[in-house]
Amino acid sequence: MQIAIVGTGYVGLVTGTCLSDFGLNVICVDRDNKKIECLNSGKVPIYEPNLEALIKKNVSAGRLTFTTDLEKAIKQSKVIFVAVGTPPNHDGSTNLKQIEKVAQQIALHLNEYKVIVNKSTVPIGTANKIKEIINKYQTLSLRATEGSAAIPSSVIPASSTVIPAKAGIHPSSPSPLRGEGGVRVKHPFDVVSNPEFLREGSAVYDFTHPDKIVIGTTSDRALKIMQEIYRPLYLIDTPFVITNPETAELIKYACNAFLATKITFINEIANLCDNVGADVHQIAKAMGLDGRISPKFLHPGPGYGGSCFPKDIEALYHFASTCGYDFKLLKGVISANKRQRELMVEKIKRHIGDLKGKTIGILGLAFKQNTDDIRKSPAIDIIKLLLKEGAKIKCFDPLAMDNTKKILPSLTYCQDEYETARDSDALVIAVEWNQFRNLDLLKIKKLLKSPILLDLRNLYDPDKVKILGFIYEGVGRK
Ligand code: NAD
Asked: How many whole angstroms from 30 Cα to the centroid of ligand 1?
């Protein structure tokens, strides 16, 4: 089966690569020339464990290709996965422009029955919206071939041989809507919602060992095709949740909102621990032993970040408001998560005093370990707050320094943890990279101006660190 993936970012690239590894033929499309050139030259534009090797393997097998030619990819594929960005608008609502644009392009290039699978995280009702857009633009395109309507030029692809720019579709142009023998037809299609639950940093593993596959469709024909695509996962007993598109769309938001709430909850307990001298580590352990709670996502820290949680929680809150529902819990989660960053800065100030002119060493910039992604990274937010207070920043991250340099070029970027500690007034562990778990603390202590270690990820045992002569504070444990 030939598959097209539109949007070759974190989700699209991982999805395309893993599906090609399932033995399917996959063509990954992106509008970003540089990204596609990079992939075609054998490099990988993002870091994900095991991704590079899997891409190489499937490219050499001839099952995985990369292109900017959306028209070709649409025409030759039976199934089109859409994995473009759905960034937030200023009011927290979801900006669907990228999705809408892709839906318009699909409409113009449909040449037979196809399944359009939405992997992007979108508000409830988007699958239906995609369907409406495709129907509308197929109809417009059909009328244009008959000379009675013009398609807005913004929709017309530069590469299209079908529609002359600005003039709409000329009646004599070869049309994607012409069936066999030149008879004009509207091609049938189905839109499926298939939200993605992979985590950056373990995306390949998550895609190939998912807890669940959610398929939202009302079409038996599309469902059969989706089951065929995911057959390798079915064979390893992955649970499938088959539902309607609206429910599938809400499942994604419900999962992310719940996880963000769980993180925020343990952060709130940790803050309380800071005030009363209790140990959040013991509390999280005891809570996690309760089968109803589970130990996952009970790690206190500087708050959730990344490209998904912050925007998805805002989007769900906003979506609920537009439906007339005030989702009070989410409002609290959003504001507590913002405050968590500020509390981390307060913690640093409690030990150092006035930050003006002080040098703070920051270990970790990515939004979490095993990724180079810095979108909505708590470490970056904390750095920005520290800069506002007049601090100077030295920093190190195993993977995310290049991305950070693009937005914060004036920081001092160090070669390793020890160079970061050298002459700093305090060292802050902001990301839970494994390599930060076994630092030579005596060496760090000698390099620091004052032996202050602020461990925002609770990587160290407070007693063991204090015995070495450090002033140490974690989150919810001292
Ligand atoms: P991304 O920004 O990394 O990638 C999106 C890609 O789409 C970009 O490369 C962009 O150039 C491309 N694109 C946009 N419009 C296009 C067009 N018209 N034609 C071709 N390419 C186009 O985004 P991402 O992190 O992969 O997220 C994609 C979606 O998946 C979002 O809705 C996100 O919320 C959701 N999601 C992300 C994750 C994650 O961990 N990153 C996990 C689950 C779901």
From this structure: 10
